[in-house]
Amino acid sequence: MITYKEVNKTYGEITAVRDLNLEIKDGDFFGLLGPNGAGKTTIMRMTATLTPPSSGSIEINGEPIHRDLTKAKQKLGIVPQYSNLESDLNAYENLEFHGRLYGLPKELRRKRIDELLEFADLTSRKKDSARTFSGGMQRKLMIAKTLMHDPEILLLDEPTVGLDATTRRKIWDFLRQLREQGKTIFMTTHYLEEAQALCENVGLIDDGRLVILDTPEQIIKQAGRFVLDYFQDGKTSQLFFEDRESAIVAAEGIEGSFKVREANLEDVFIKLTNKDLGVRNEV
Questions:
Q1: Which of 213, 240, 265 is the C-terminal boundary of a domain?
Q2: Which of the residues 27, 89, 174, 278 has the least number of beta carbons within 10 Å of its own beta carbon?
Q3: CA-wise closest residue to 122 among 101, 103, 147
Q4: Nearest-10 crossing angle of helices 106-119, 91-101
Q5: Cβ(78)–Cβ(145) under 8 Å?
Q6: What is the DSSP string of 1-14?
Q7: Are the C-beta atoms of 31 and 13 separated by less than 8 Å?
Q8: Cα dist. 181→52, 197, 204, 245 in Å?
Q9: What band does 13 get if pLDDT is binned at 50, 70 and 90?
Q10: Which of 161, 188, 213 is the last residue of a domain?
């Protein structure tokens, strides 16, 4: 379990994270959502031991991670937003290199490499340079590399950013398999449909502060299950309703264009913060 206790992070006069209290339970798939500059990456970097909190503590199973960084890193697998592959090495060599960094014995390294290449469906490309891989293949290899030392917790920073819709969904299936294996997964994402599809619990963060924490279903239910979008006076506004029939009745009194649809996480975030996350849901 990852526990954040009154965590703050400041850079000079700028407060990036404010009074964060949060528990991510073992085996949970947790998503952290928010606009650019909200504090998502800072929280991820602190969790990955790349930067310490200014105050408060982050614990794994009750032990502060910055007390023993080496021990903490053994429990963590980190997949950054941008590629951390050795592009001049082939797939096998990338995994071998990571295994050596973590001191895995030779026989165990070979066993893990074969297992992970098979798991990532990359066995046939194991001798190919990582630079020749597509974006989706590189992302799968990055995740496989992170799994070499069999970490308890995976930290995924925007794991499907820049990928097309089809490839993104293939990565989702890959991550679902990891969840079924019992891994604890902490993911930041801009893609709201990604959080709804994968995450058991999500947190919405704004200006460094956690503003809501619950399951995607309960968060949407709190705001209203249906949205009436209507265009009036040069802007689009929204009204929330518990059922579609009520939304349709309300629409009868609106002049101009309108649409009744199911609510999503982005609607809830905008309602709570009056801000747009910056990346709209995919159609």
A1: 213
A2: 278
A3: 147
A4: 130
A5: no
A6: -EEEEEEEEEETTE
A7: no
A8: 30, 18, 26, 42
A9: very high
A10: 213
